[in-house]
Amino acid sequence: MALIVHKYGGTSMGSTDRIKNVARRVAKWHDAGHRIVVVPSAMSGETNRLIGLAKEIQAQPDPRELDMIASTGEQVSVGLLSMALQAIGKKAVAYAGWQVAIKTDSAYTKARIQSIDNDKVNRDLDDGKIVIITGFQGVDDEDNITTLGRGGSDTSAVAIAAAMKADECLIFTDVDGVYTTDPRVVSEARRLKAITFEEMLELASLGSKVLQTRSVEFAGNYRVPTRVLSSLTDPMLDIEEEANSGTLISFEEDTHMEQAVISGIAFNRDEAKITVLGVPDRPGVAYHILGPVADANIEVDMIIQNQSVDGKTDFTFTVPRNDFQPALDVLNGTKDQLGAASITGDAKVSKISVVGVGMRSHVGVASKMFRTLSEEGINIMMISTSEIKISVLIDEKYMELAVRALHKAFELEKA
Ligand code: ADP
Ligand code: ASP
Ligand code: MG
């Protein structure tokens, strides 16, 4: 008998029929003798709908009240799933995050989980119940409801699995695993049987939304065996077959099944670029430009400072597209103090990254990437590298073309 956490995403919970299928799949695992905790997302489209309602009232919604609204989609899901399980003769109980409690900090809309009390859940499991807990939400020390950022149910599930020392966390979603790139963009993308934790962390943080980045961090920090698999197969699929399907996040590099140099390509449309032109090149220039941006809670990603000419330099960096205007506003406020000639920006840029632990022992990955883009006539605006990834910033209109060309150049379709 094992303790297993199942997570079901929005598409998987998308209709009452799909919820009935989730219930059948969960019941199958429970019937096999396992203790099961289920973490569902809101029904597909529901979180967007709720945020849309809030924005009809306040263009920039108050974050605390927004979390009050956005968290409700998951509460509907847990209730419906619990009922669907009861309807097929299972004992089940649904909890909101605060009832467990899943404690977070107070950073509304992007809260971080701090602790999870598993007493109540364990009592219910001892009692033979299937426990269903809302994804995406928690509660802070002042009893305010918080949410964990978009895609946060992945993090709820892995964090619960970590807190309960579960044997496995199964992330059921609308694709049958982690692919070499988003299979909706490249039809030749290939499913990976296993991916190292480090590579998954890079792919997620560089834009692959199949797992929320923080869920991968939890999996790594607490060594939670985590698998991504399909919720759209027959719910009565043989349990052994299901248990070995999808993609396993592995912690051992030598169990990494595919020895490719590159494991995958991630992309992020959600980027914007800002350039501060003609600033006096003296100590503190980066601090004086980026300090106020950081104070406004805006995360900066790629950064380039040009060689100075006549004591003046240009400074370029990227921010999430949502923060483009706020970042420009901050800089326009400090422009005179900086002595900058002008500030320009471009919100139609995308970042593409190739990721792979094999890069450590192979040279030539960067040049192959740059050659491929040049052959497609795609201009690179910025480059950044780390030990296991190379990222480039390009015009967003070439993003899909670039991903396809790189996928082909690195022969990712081949095992
Ligand atoms: P859920 O609602 O189950 O959380 P998401 O939409 O958040 O599902 O994540 C699954 C989606 O992630 C897939 O439908 C796919 O389009 C996208 N995706 C992006 N990159 C990848 C990848 N490398 N492998 C698989 N899916 C990916
Ligand atoms: N419902 C939330 C969202 O749409 C959380 C999740 O689906 O993981 O972002
Ligand atoms: Mg998701």
UniProtKB/TrEMBL annotation:
InterPro entries listed in its UniProt record: AceGlu_kinase-like_sf (IPR036393), ACT-like_dom_sf (IPR045865), ACT_Aspartokinase (IPR054352), ACT_dom (IPR002912), AKii-LysC-BS (IPR041740), Asp/Glu/Uridylate_kinase (IPR001048), Asp_kin_monofn (IPR005260), Asp_kinase (IPR001341)
The keyword Nucleotide-binding appears for this protein: yes
Gene3D superfamilies xref list: Acetylglutamate kinase-like (3.40.1160.10), VC0802-like (3.30.2130.10)
Keywords, ordered alphabetically: Amino-acid biosynthesis, ATP-binding, Kinase, Lysine biosynthesis, Nucleotide-binding, Transferase
EC main group: transferase
One MF annotation (Gene Ontology) recorded for this entry: aspartate kinase activity
UniProt GO BP: homoserine biosynthetic process; lysine biosynthetic process via diaminopimelate; threonine biosynthetic process
Binding residues for substrate: 47, 74
EC annotation from Swiss-Prot or TrEMBL: 2.7.2.4
Pathway(s) annotated for this protein in UniProt: Amino-acid biosynthesis; L-threonine biosynthesis; L-threonine from L-aspartate: step 1/5; Amino-acid biosynthesis; L-lysine biosynthesis via DAP pathway; (S)-tetrahydrodipicolinate from L-aspartate: step 1/4; Amino-acid biosynthesis; L-methionine biosynthesis via de novo pathway; L-homoserine from L-aspartate: step 1/3
Domain ACT: residue ranges: 274-345, 354-415
Domain of life, source organism: Bacteria
Binding residues annotated for ATP, in chain numbering: 7-10, 173-174, 179, 184, 209-210
CDD domains: AAK_AKii-LysC-BS, ACT_AK-LysC-DapG-like_2, ACT_AKii-LysC-BS-like_1
GO CC annotations, alphabetized: cytosol
Swiss-Prot/TrEMBL catalytic activity: L-aspartate + ATP = 4-phospho-L-aspartate + ADP
Spans traversing the lipid bilayer: none
Family named by the database record: Belongs to the aspartokinase family.
Matches recorded under PANTHER family: ASPARTATE KINASE, ASPARTOKINASE
Record's protein name: Aspartokinase
Lineage: Bacteria, Pseudomonadati, Pseudomonadota, Betaproteobacteria, Burkholderiales
